[in-house]
Amino acid sequence: MEKKIVETLWHWIKMFVLCTVIIFIMRAFIFVPLEVTGNSMSPTLKEHDFVVVENFSTVNRFDIIVFHAPDGNTYVKRVIGLPGDHIVYKNDSLYINNNLVEETFLKDIKKKKNEYVLTSDFDSKDLIGTKTIPKDQYFVMGDNRRVSKDSRSFGTISSYSIIGKARLVYYPIQDIKIIKD
Fold first, then answer.
1. Per the residue annotation, which of 3, 14, 40, 46 is the catalytic one?
2. How far is 61 from 53, CA to CA, in rounded Å?
3. Which first-to-last residue range defines the signal peptide (predicted)?
4. Residue 77 is a catalytic residue
5. CA-to-CA distance for 102 and 91, rounded, in angstroms?
């Protein structure tokens, strides 16, 4: 009888240790929690939202990513330009490689902004010094374009500086949502 109790207890201890190690690995390397600071991603993400960041999938256009910027800070921004792209904003519209691209995630903001331009005109060539975004580089912008410090001010970001994609808002409870690509 005692032997069975010891075996059962030992089994549960091993399971607890194994689960603890798996949770630690997942939290540290696969699903990283992060608090959003600032209003540059508003209204998609608000200041003090807590998000889960995953770092194992490919970065695509319009993904929301977390990265270490050249200025040493960690930012949450949306990917607008991929390697090889030429980005132009004209009359508050996005052109990628001379093709008009709709930013559906901004449609609610643009409805409200009748009195001002959300995104000022620019050409990525003038901002980064080359016609196209270099290999392993990304052009990022905040959804709140008028207050966002992004690639328009610090240039493109390296793929090596990307921590991962923001996938889920888990706090505050009333704002829980899956972040769509």
1. 40
2. 17
3. none
4. yes
5. 13
